[in-house]
């Protein structure tokens, strides 16, 4: 039987096929996996640049493109017959000699580019000061080295990016902008999916290369696993190397903090880490997030991610306020009142829950009997908005032991006034940083960063956090900002825009409308009556993502919210409030995967003066 690996493009392309074609393709693939009579067989491709590339006839007029080596078959894509043949002829595949990950080359396009580079070459080339040995030590392909020697400008390297594997382009780009060999090596090493694999690489071993490439391939052993991969969202199955390295690490001796900008996959890392700890950890897991709404969202995602019901039950999902409420309720035998006579505030309940945990366990018992704690592992999402008291409660809810706390957040997306360094609440964390945004196109990311103000923000460890180095993995559409004379015209424009998105085929569930306050949300809902598109306030968009997002009422006097009638006594409070308002708008803007529309009537928000 073949060892079948599925590439990330295949499920997406399969889902786009007409239902009868999709059904036939799935049946054919199941037969191939089981190696039964009538199963498709790999057919050689005449004129292929890689002898291992073949095609599988999966349905009438459609073929899968595969890379095979003995019994290993990697299914890359499914296309109409002519496109499949063309794709198979155009590409070649290899193994990075340093990292051992799979690499895909658009060989035909590179052949067309080479003459143009030769005509424009100026001596010496951009990489002339660097010897071949140093370039090869960065994992650069031996056969592509003559091509790289023709490069004379940084613009040449940028133009080659779509044609090269990222593990080839990344170190080249560092060197092209004047970086050192050490900096280029660190950029390459970021593409390593496991922090523990440092052994020799067999460049001829396709199977091992695919195992080292969780973003490019996942093996399926039977029909059940195949159907799950074809049905699940990308984030469930294919993790980018930095995400995989953090989420699937065998163990952490100290608490871990993962910071990253919008769209870098922090929540995905948190979900996969919780799932990993549930399957391989030493006790119950608590996944904590900002609000009950987000907790419900994460719980639904864990249901998709974890198939095994027993493993799934090991993970509880909650927010810090409800955790405190549960601890006090369990101790007192009834739910404490939050309003009315004898009511306690959430802050008071958090303090009481911490007192109860400390009395029941005591930190000295952690290493002797970690079972005294309610949880063995705690994963925290949206950490930037956890208060100091909530951090103390979370620290007390798990033992001081291996894999105790795993924390993800972004100080630039802080929407509360919670500002705390973890060390100040007894959490000595090792920080890791994610710098590549997979959700946002570069144009939208740049716009949002300028709107937010890309300066420093109080970090989750001692010191401040900046956005230096944050970039997107792809290009896309620029955000649209429109001004209207009246609110009526603005709402008419909103409805027209949403109707055009729906006409483009964007599902209503993949469209979100946001406004700063409830009054503008209600007006938007009235304007969109009958369109089945949801609208929220900006803070309620936190943690969610959509294909397209429209933000309305981004006007002066609305964004930012007007200051209180009596100014605060603390001198820096107004500045902090304005920065928090910028963060709230930044969070709302960065919920969009592909398109952002912003409108206002009258004078626009001063934040839009980019």
From TrEMBL:
It comes from the Bacteria. This is DNA helicase UvrD. Residues 542-600 form the UvrD-like helicase C-terminal domain. Keywords: ATP-binding, Helicase, Hydrolase, Nucleotide-binding. InterPro entries: DNA_helicase_UvrD-like_C, DNA_helicase_UvrD/REP, P-loop_NTPase. The keyword ATP-binding applies. The keyword ATP-binding applies. GO terms for biological process: recombinational repair. One of its GO terms (cellular component) is cytosol. It holds the Pfam family UvrD_C. GO terms for molecular function: 3'-5' DNA helicase activity; ATP binding; DNA binding; hydrolase activity.
């Amino acid at each position: 039987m073949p060892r079948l690996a599925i590439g990330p493009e295949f499920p997406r392309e399969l889902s786009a096929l007409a239902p009868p074609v999709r059904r036939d393709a799935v049946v054919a693939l199941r037969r191939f996996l089981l190696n039964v009579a009538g199963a498709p067989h790999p057919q050689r491709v005449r004129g292929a640049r890689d002898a291992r590339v073949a095609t599988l006839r999966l349905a009438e007029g459609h073929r899968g493109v595969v890379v095979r080596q003995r019994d290993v078959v990697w299914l890359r894509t499914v296309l109409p017959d002519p496109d499949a043949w063309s794709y198979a002829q155009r590409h070649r595949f290899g193994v990075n000699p340093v990292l051992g990950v799979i690499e895909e080359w658009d060989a035909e396009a590179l052949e067309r580019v080479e003459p143009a580079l030769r005509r424009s070459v100026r001596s010496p080339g951009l990489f002339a000061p660097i010897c071949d040995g140093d370039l090869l030590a960065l994992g650069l392909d031996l056969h592509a080295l003559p091509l790289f020697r023709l490069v004379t400008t940084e613009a040449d390297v940028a133009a080659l990016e779509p044609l090269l594997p990222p593990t080839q382009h990344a170190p080249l780009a560092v060197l092209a902008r004047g970086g050192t060999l050490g900096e280029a090596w660190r950029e390459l090493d970021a593409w390593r999916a496991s922090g523990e694999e440092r052994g020799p690489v067999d460049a001829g071993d396709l199977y091992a290369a695919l195992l080292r490439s969780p973003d490019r391939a996942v093996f399926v052993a039977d029909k059940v696993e195949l159907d799950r991969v074809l049905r699940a969202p990308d984030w469930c199955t294919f993790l980018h190397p930095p995400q995989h390295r953090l989420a699937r690490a065998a163990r952490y001796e100290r608490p871990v903090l993962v910071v990253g900008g919008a769209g870098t996959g922090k929540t995905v890392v948190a979900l996969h880490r919780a799932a990993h700890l549930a399957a391989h950890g030493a006790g119950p897991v608590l996944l904590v997030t900002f609000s009950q709404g987000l907790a419900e969202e994460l719980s639904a995602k864990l249901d998709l991610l974890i198939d095994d019901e027993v493993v799934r039950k090991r993970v509880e999902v909650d927010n810090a306020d409800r955790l405190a409420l549960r601890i006090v309720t369990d101790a007192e035998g009834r739910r404490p009142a939050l309003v009315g006579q004898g009511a306690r505030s959430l802050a008071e309940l958090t303090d009481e829950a911490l007192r109860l945990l400390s009395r029941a366990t005591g930190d000295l018992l952690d290493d002797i009997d970690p079972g005294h704690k309610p949880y063995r592992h705690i994963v925290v999402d949206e950490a930037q908005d956890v208060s100091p008291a909530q951090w103390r409660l979370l620290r007390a809810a798990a033992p001081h032991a291996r894999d105790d706390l795993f924390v993800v957040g972004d100080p630039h997306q802080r929407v509360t006034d919670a500002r705390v360094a973890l060390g100040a609440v007894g959490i000595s964390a090792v920080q890791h940083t994610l710098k590549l945004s997979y959700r946002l196109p570069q144009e939208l990311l740049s716009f949002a960063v300028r709107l937010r103000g890309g300066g420093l923000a109080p970090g989750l460890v001692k010191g401040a956090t900046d956005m230096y180095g944050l970039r997107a993995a792809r290009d896309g559409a620029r955000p649209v900002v429109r001004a209207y004379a009246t609110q009526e015209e603005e709402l008419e424009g909103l409805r027209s825009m949403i109707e055009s998105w729906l006409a483009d085929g964007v599902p209503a569930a993949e469209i979100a409308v946001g406004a700063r306050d409830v009054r503008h949300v209600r007006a938007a809902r009235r304007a969109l009556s009958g369109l089945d598109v949801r609208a929220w306030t900006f803070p309620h968009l936190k943690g969610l993502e959509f294909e397209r997002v429209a933000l309305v009422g981004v006007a002066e006097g609305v964004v930012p919210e007007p200051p209180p009638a009596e100014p605060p006594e603390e001198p820096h409070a107004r500045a902090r409030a304005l920065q928090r308002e910028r963060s709230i708008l930044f969070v709302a803007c960065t919920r969009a995967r592909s398109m952002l529309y912003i409108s206002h009537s009258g004078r626009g928000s001063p934040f839009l003066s980019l």
